[in-house]
UniProtKB/TrEMBL annotation:
GO terms for biological process: amino acid transport. PROSITE patterns: ABC_TRANSPORTER_1, ABC_TRANSPORTER_2. This is ATP-binding cassette domain-containing protein. It comes from Xylanimonas allomyrinae. Part of the ABC transporter FtsEX involved in cellular division. Has ATPase activity.
Length: 396
């Protein structure tokens, strides 16, 4: 990753003035943030957090109320329309609703920004062909948007956004209207845009799975502020803010919620421990070996291991069988290599704050392995999300 920031927010704020009955809204509230050239940067937050306003500051669709936004070395504050147009020419954008022109064919949509930029016809046609090839819909050139699937429409949106060779691509909820499979295809395409074309990609989302799948770094927004920033893997493995822990929980769903834990205790009266699986522990082999060497027999009763930023991550809940001393020694040993939450036994349960406060609280009744759709609770992302791969509950 190149260290030079291509986008810098410096104490940037955007305040929408109130009216007679409405209070003012601090949509972006003192954000300081650097996005490096060449990275895929995610901005995640719940609805109303200020994500769209934040990205709209990058291409000056909104102007800062105070502070500054610097793009490619140019401070946008107070810049005139002519200079802004130059900056905007280096930024492509795609949207949740695709925003295609219904009266134009696929090729016509992709050609549109080239016409605006006054490219000669011959070059335009060659460029459109090249772009449609890149996004994999060359065969749809003469089709109208209404005849395309959502995934195909977003490919057109991406081709159009790339037409004039931008250095930055902004994607505002670009996959939120798509099913999980199509979401992955579009995210893979955005990865190619980043890796093969060297374009910096900023992805706005409220789905932690999107971050998990393709972002290098991520900023978490709440009430207009960035509450946490870091490498995607760090954010997943050590979420600090409560809102971040909720997002992580909805994506991984690897730890039992309070309700699930109650059921687990009925079925598994022995000692339950949640053991973190990460890059270091890697697989369960070393963990089970540590336990068995100390005379403790483990059974997996819940959990999941998935990938975050291409590295293994998750947790497994074990029921441990063995003498109290053996279990205590084995748990102490495991703690030296990974996170271990001791949940106690059915008779002597222990409360683990990290389960109750962050992760479990976020998904009451919405655990991957509970009956889906029984709760009216809103899940961030709204749509179905992939659960962890690997192990599931019920080794009994
Ligand atoms: N033009 C505007 N005038 C007044 N208030 C606005 C305007 N645009 C956004 N807001 C307010 O600013 C806040 C942040 O909105 P924004 O659209 O940036 O959030 P978001 O994180 O993108 O949400 P979502 O996930 O729903 O798209 C909200 O309270 C919103 O109502
Ligand atoms: Mg938005």
């Amino acid at each position: 990753m190149v260290s030079e920031p291509i986008i810098s927010f410096r104490d940037a704020a955007k305040v929408f003035p109130g009216g007679r009955r409405r209070p003012e809204v601090r949509a972006v509230d003192g954000v300081t943030l650097d996005i490096a050239a060449g990275e895929i940067f995610g901005v995640i937050g719940y609805s109303g957090a200020g994500k769209s306003t934040l990205v709209r500051l990058i291409n000056a669709l909104e102007r800062t109320t105070s502070g500054a936004v610097v793009v490619g070395g140019t401070d946008l504050t107070g810049l005139g329309e002519a200079r802004l147009r130059e900056v905007r020419a280096g930024i492509g954008m795609i949207f949740q609703q695709f925003n295609l022109l219904a009266s134009r064919t696929v090729a016509g949509n992709v050609a549109y920004p080239l016409e605006v930029a006054r490219w000669p016809r011959g070059e335009r046609e060659a460029r459109v062909r090249e772009l449609l090839d890149f996004v994999g819909i060359a065969d749809k050139a003469d089709t109208y948007p209404a005849q395309l699937s959502g995934g195909q429409k977003q490919r057109v949106g991406i081709a159009r956004a790339l037409a004039t060779n931008p250095r930055i691509l902004l994607a505002d909820e670009a996959t939120s209207a798509l099913d999980p499979e199509t979401t992955r295809e579009v995210l893979r395409l955005l990865q190619r845009v980043n890796r093969e074309l060297g374009i910096t990609v900023v992805i706005i989302t409220h789905e932690m799975d999107v971050v998990r799948y393709c972002c290098d770094r991520v900023a978490v927004m709440e009430h207009g502020k960035v509450v946490e920033t870091g490498a995607a893997y760090e954010i997943f493995s050590r979420p600090q803010a409560a809102v971040t822990r909720r997002f992580v929980a909805t994506s991984l769903r690897d730890r039992p919620s309070d309700e699930t834990l109650a059921r687990l205790r009925e079925r598994h009266p022995g000692r339950l421990v949640v053991v973190g699986i990460d890059e270091v522990t890697g697989s369960t082999r070393a963990i089970t070996q540590v336990l068995r060497d100390r005379g403790v027999e483990p059974a997996v009763v819940y959990g999941g291991i998935t990938e975050v930023a291409n590295k293994p991550y998750g947790s497994l809940t074990f029921e441990l069988a063995g003498s109290d001393d053996a279990v205590a020694a084995a748990v102490a040993h495991l703690r030296a290599v990974t996170d271990v939450d001791d949940l106690g036994t059915a008779r002597a349960p222990r409360t683990v704050p990290s389960l109750a406060a962050g992760r479990a609280e976020a998904t009451p009744g919405r655990d991957a392995r509970e009956v889906p759709g029984t709760s009216g609770e809103r899940r961030p992302g709204g749509g179905p999300t992939g659960g962890p791969t690997g192990l599931v509950e019920g080794n009994d």
